[in-house]
Amino acid sequence: MARIDRSFGDVEAYADARWTRVEQGQQSAPVKDSLQLPVGHPDNRGPGIMTIYDYTFADLGPVRDTTVSISRFLTLGLRGAWGDGEWDIHVNDQHNDSSDELMGLLREDTFAEAVRKGAFHIDTVNAEAVRSAISPVLHRRAETTQSGISGHVSRPVAELPGGAATVAIGVEAYRDRLHDAPDPLILTSRVFQFQTPSIRSEDRWSSAAYIESLLPVMHRFDVDVAWRFDRSKGYGHAWSPKVGLNWKAMDGLSIRGTWARGYRAPTLLQLNHPATLASVGFLTQVPNNVLPCAEGVLIDRYSSYCELRLNSISNPQLKAETSSSYTLGLVWAPSDTASVALDYFRIRRDNDINALPIPYVLTNPERYPRLFERNANHELVALNQQLTNLGKTDARVIDLESRYRFEPGRVGRFDIRFDVNYLKRLDRTIVSGMPVDHYAGYASQPRWTALLGIDWRYRDWTTTANVRYTGAYRYPTSSASFQTCPDYLATVGKCTTPAFVLVDLNLAYAGIRDWTVALNVHNLFDHSPAYYGSPGTAYNPLFDDVVGRAYQLSFTWHPH
After folding, report:
1. How many Å apart are CA 551 and CA 410, to the nearest integer?
2. What integer pLDDT is reported at residue 273 of this predicted model?
3. 307 plus 201 within the same structural domain
4. Are residues 345 and 494 in the same domain?
């Protein structure tokens, strides 16, 4: 990271540059598959017939995936004063490049040929030439870029009873580009993956303009009014107004409220085969009226467990989502060192862009026949997941923020912050006219989350401890889900994923001229996740830390 500022009279030029490289490696068990050995193959132990073996390809080694991601961000801008106001104009360019190398998977055509000719043998280490032919190294390259220009100007325009009224006006335009090129062997299905990718290449221009004014209409009473115009290629345009009120009822006590409309067009990633929740086989409970499954076991007369793939398909009919939000809160700040803010939020999104819930698809198969993939025997083998516009989502949240600072003398200064978030309601209507479904407190939607942070500053040292709390949530995806907690979890009392706490610790030293050295310890107590949710999934990627305790050492140079 680097930033440079330089003044030329009344104009200041600035540049901000960031570069990041992340290399990630992961591996899983070797490929396991059903192997058919023909008559005459030297390893066929059958009595003159084709024999099927369940075989693990150990000599290919584990499935290995290495990804290198490079991100570059550059901003160049000019800014300056305009009377009692200011102006700013800047351009920026962000580029993300990802290269992926995958080893250990089977190329089905060359493998079938090696089996037919007897070149591939089981229960041994095959020759290097055979292994390279049946399990080649696969490559994938993806790029996303966003380039744009924006500018704004703000200044006082009039005197009102409560003070000076200010107006800010801004415009922006940017171009998004996406290109994703998987290996041709995967694209042509010659190498099997649970989720078959596709080439993605898109380009889109978007623009926006806004105006905002802070109006101190009375002593202790301010009004904030804003209006935003958005335009996206293929999605037309939309106007989004906002009105905010702030009343200083007495010294140290303010009451505030806001009403706003919002607009968001689908992103390029959402329009083109978005990532699924799981890219491997997964076990799920399905109603018996969608049977048979290729791999399944009967639970009762109503449902069964099936092992399915989860594919991703595009939905070119996606529409932009809109929102209405309301907030009401108060802030109590009895001194410069202490404050408490309590806010109530209600946000309603219409045409909500979200994944179509799997339980809803399974209970309404007649509505979404194209989402069910079956084999030649009409057995269910996969679900095709897609993003869609839900009827509406209604969220209601209570948020508490508190801050306290004290300096006990010779031991430095302490800053304490405590934030609590309560999800009072999260309701969704999947299709307009259908009953409301409740999600708060169910799978991946805990009602309670909290954060306690403590900063201790002593001379050139800063020590920070962050304690993050994530509340419990129940097994079903929602109140109306037919997927109930299975017996094997219910009998041991594991129908609710328990609450947990993660602790991070950071130590920074700034006693060396122009330098800051910092050590961060993430997940200090090496907490291991406990997750009683989807069968076959060991943890919840939304909340859980599967890396465990991790360390980061950083050096920052800031010349005076």
Report:
1. 30
2. 67
3. no
4. yes
